[in-house]
Fold this protein.
Amino acid sequence: MGEYIPNEELENRTVVRKYRELLQVVWSRTDSEERKQIRKAFVLATNAHFGVRRKSGEPYIYHPIAVAMICCSEMNLGATSVICALLHDVVEDTDYTLDDMRELFGDVVANIIDGLTKIDDLVVDNENISLQAENFKKIFLSMSKDVRVILIKLADRLHNMRTLDAMPPEKQLKIASETSYFYVPFAHRLGLYSIKSELEDYAMRYTNPTEYFTIAEKLKESEKERSTMIPEFIAPIQKALDKAGIKAEITSRTKSVSSIYNKMVRKQINFEDVYDIFAVRFVFDSPMYEEFDICWRIYHIICNLYQTNPSRDRNFLTHPKPNGYQSLHVTAMSKQGRWVEVQIRSKRMDEIAEKGLAAHYHYKDDGESADTDMNKRLEDWLLKTREILDSKDADALDFLSEVRLNLGLKEIYVFTPKGDMKTMPQGSTVLDFAYALHTNLGDHCIGAKVNYNITPVNKVLNNGDQVEIITSKKQFPKAEWLEFVQTPKARRSIKDFFRNEQQELITSGKLLLKQYFDELGVDFTEENVQNLMSASLEKSPEDFWNSVVSKKLTKSKITVGCDPERLPP
């Protein structure tokens, strides 16, 4: 990247141009009052960041405008998100406060900006607390109330990755690694496929540049082949579609660098052996009730024209991905002997695939959407995140680990004896399913009938299994259960059981110990209890209180076995 030379006059014109371009995109989905609020936010952000420049040398205001543009043009979000994107760094980087934001723009905007503002005043114990993990936890807390927090954060990260060249190498590596760990899985879960792929490619460019540029160069070398192969592949299909009276928009794409690399690593193959590098997409417009029929008609046309690979067929129509993705996939052999992945879907499905599940909220100021099915899918996922937030665990790193597990996209469908379907992460066990149905079922689970066969609690479930949980009043959670359960809810429930059990143990132990102390004429103080705990030589506080409750540590042993000087009367 060449050195940036500031030019105030040109920069001012550029800021005005960028703002007008933003207004053009958001105009159709806003009213006059919303546009006034957007202008107010733009003026405030411009003044707040006046004189501040990015590492590239460009005026800082370019960044919030770019983030706002990503929100409205690439995520389909509305006025509130645009306002928050323009203001997302104001509280963090300037003298403006959240109270100022609340007074000027209202509670909703202030709350979202609060969720976007990093924690910078945390007392950090490097051994136990990660400041970055605490910041991620704050994002989750805010996102559970308003999903726009994470959407704007993704837009912010995307623009930062697009301009990462200006940062020093050590910063590039840190930011890229963080993007892979946190933001890519989030974009994937929310169905923001284009953004996910772009973030993933940028991250790989900085974390694994050798592999990235090697694959990028090979893709460049194959451009000529694609330019002739794809049109020849499409032509007979287009002719058959015209004959069948099906109108479809046809586009082609190349698999992203990171996606190719991941497949090479996962399957231990070379670049040349990745056979679905080329993809063609057929998108048609139709009423919802005709979508599946047209998808299958196009599928049969392709199968009649080309040799296909049945093992590569993917039906996401009847069972969409957890992020709402719907499409019909078939892989066909071109006349040149190259496999081509074909994606078939309606315009409605395509919008979900490209803009993402969360974009279907179509946020207005009331936060409501007409798409109730999409809302339910997002709410179901947010509910899982809220369940993790309810956990009493204080460790942000553990919390982050639990949420990342919840971001996993590979899921299976499991059925109750009555035929009710439950979506579970792949790898879930009988015990996970029991806890998913009810905490009490999980706590007392001793096994299950899986497809009418008796199985243990650690049995891994498969897609389509029918499961009947077997319980016993004598069964209670065991520590080893934590070694095989997969779901955050199951892990949290087991930990909560032991935490509650421990608290009851301590409470009972304190009551009994106070009775002993009273009879011995010793003050029941924290200091005296700690002295006795040390003198008892028990390995842990849990062991000490257990010895008290089990009456292993009796009043006579306290009298005989403890140094009177350590237990002042």
User: Anything to note?
Assistant: The radius of gyration is 29 Å.
